[in-house]
Design brief:
The protein is mainly alpha-helical. The protein is about 75% helix and about 0% strand. It has 10 helices and no strands. It has helices spanning about 1-20, 55-90, 90-105, 110-120, 125-135, 135-150, 155-160, 165-200, 215-220, 230-260. The protein is elongated. The two termini are about 20 Å apart. The mean pLDDT is about 90.
Length: about 260
């Protein structure tokens, strides 16, 4: 597991550390150095505005990962809470969760996100509003299934019989069993959210222009023939990050299967 997770850690470290090591300011254009080829001074060359491409890719990666993480954190928290409460309460609460999940799964997620992001003013809050409403479903269903399984265990039934409150049950008996399955699903959701965020950035919706990997690819589209590296570099960064997240998800799934057997 450690080896596969390490690849994703390297991606995060690159996004955090690379701008500090290169020392270039990508917020200020330098047209006199526009479209320089890769060399000792600029390892990946410069873009159409003379900004260091390596530094810019790392900075855009920060934005992409941070926004995707924020969306995933909110959807994971909402989904886990809703699934656990519905699984423990049962009855009408459980039926309501299943109905909401069915409706959410029936809706075209990215299309709805594009519609919302197109109506709302650009900004990070818009991305959250566009991706959160349907993003909770997978964690909610997993948390619900795990909670229902744990709630039928003898030790949980015994605790309920002596009058333990639902909050106590969720915190002390249910939550430890949700950690593994929810973390695995959240990691997979993170990868999907990252692609959704970059898709919105590519279309120029939600995030500021060029702020993330999708925005970089969009800006480089007119220069695909003359300077293809401007689009290839951020696209490769996204592909490699998605691959490392897939490897991390597999590692967490194996660990979860070992620690939390069905």
């Amino acid at each position: 597991m450690t080896g596969r997770v390490a690849w994703f850690v390297l991606v995060v470290v690159f996004c955090l550390v690379a701008p500090l090591l290169t020392g270039y300011d990508v917020s200020t254009p330098d047209l006199g150095r526009a479209l320089l080829p890769p060399g000792p001074e600029h390892w990946l060359g410069t873009d159409q505005l003379g900004r260091d491409l390596l530094t810019r890719t790392a900075m855009a990666g920060r934005t992409s990962l941070l926004v995707a993480f924020a969306v995933t954190a909110v959807t994971t928290a909402l989904g886990t809470l809703a699934g656990a409460v519905a699984g423990l309460a049962g009855g009408a609460t459980e039926r309501l969760l299943r109905f909401a999940a069915t409706v959410a799964l029936a809706l075209p997620g990215l299309t709805l996100a594009l519609a919302l992001a197109g109506v709302l003013p650009p900004g990070y809050a818009t991305v959250l509003a566009a991706l959160v409403p349907l993003g909770w479903v997978s964690c909610g269903l997993v948390a619900h299934t795990a909670t229902r399984r744990v709630a039928r265990a003898d030790h949980v039934l015994a605790v309920r019989a002596i009058g333990a409150s639902p909050l106590y049950l969720l915190r002390r008996t249910i939550a430890p069993h949700l950690a593994g399955p929810v973390l695995t699903v959240a990691t997979a959701d993170f990868a999907r959210t990252l692609i959704a965020v970059t898709s919105l950035g590519f279309l120029g919706i939600g995030l500021p222009p060029g702020a993330d990997w999708g925005g970089m690819v969009s800006e480089a589209t007119p220069l695909l023939v003359t300077a293809p590296r401007l689009a290839v570099v951020p696209a490769l960064a996204l592909a490699l990050t998605s691959l490392t997240l897939a490897l991390t998800t597999d590692a967490l799934r194996e660990r979860s299967a070992t620690r939390f057997p069905q």
